[in-house]
Amino acid sequence: MIQPALIIIDMQRGMLEPAAGERNNPDAPERLTALLHAWRQARAPIVHVRHISRATTTLFAPGRPSVEFQPSLYPLPDEHVVEKNVPDAFINSGLERWLRVRGIEAVVIGGVSTNNSVEGTARSAGNLGFRTYVLADACFTFAKVDYNGVLRSAEEVHAMALANLQDEYARIIDSAEAAALLQTSELPG
């Protein structure tokens, strides 16, 4: 049995800075850290995704300390690291090839932000035929003004992003269900 890959998206130091904005799911980093340890213990595949901005004035500009991974989620030398400069981790990164070469057919996605990089990556994963799971309690996002000019809370933005993915691109699960995926030989649809 080839276990699902855990894909941790953009859990960089900059996401901890107040400049990142008001967010939901304050326990998401701890849940991701616990899942990372479970994946390591199971020797299951792990992918760390890091955003490197093309703009030099952002939190994620090359060379800034805010680009570095959060200490509790720092990759080990044998764990795969993908660098991206667009929201979708599959674009120009070789991620799909890395997964296919290893026979990996399922991915579990968590990180930040739910409505941007998590959603973009999950959409591509689903469209590429991977069995895709998104961690509702191990990803988070930020408050955002919608198209009509209405400020939406981080929780509202998060819930809508998950609704966009549910059943069409991914199955939405929590971290307890994700941990259980490591123990089963048959992944639920």
Automatic annotation (TrEMBL):
What PANTHER family does its record include?
Answer: ISOCHORISMATASE HYDROLASE, PEROXYUREIDOACRYLATE/UREIDOACRYLATE AMIDOHYDROLASE-RELATED
Name recorded for this polypeptide: Cysteine hydrolase
Q: Which UniProt keywords apply?
A: Hydrolase
Ranked from the top, the taxonomy reads:
Bacteria, Pseudomonadati, Pseudomonadota, Gammaproteobacteria, Pseudomonadales
Keyword Hydrolase applies: yes
| Superkingdom, taxonomy of origin | Bacteria
The UniProt GO MF terms for this protein read:
hydrolase activity
Q: Which Pfam families match?
A: Isochorismatase
Q: Which residues form the Isochorismatase-like domain?
A: 5-176
Q: Which residues form a coiled coil?
A: none
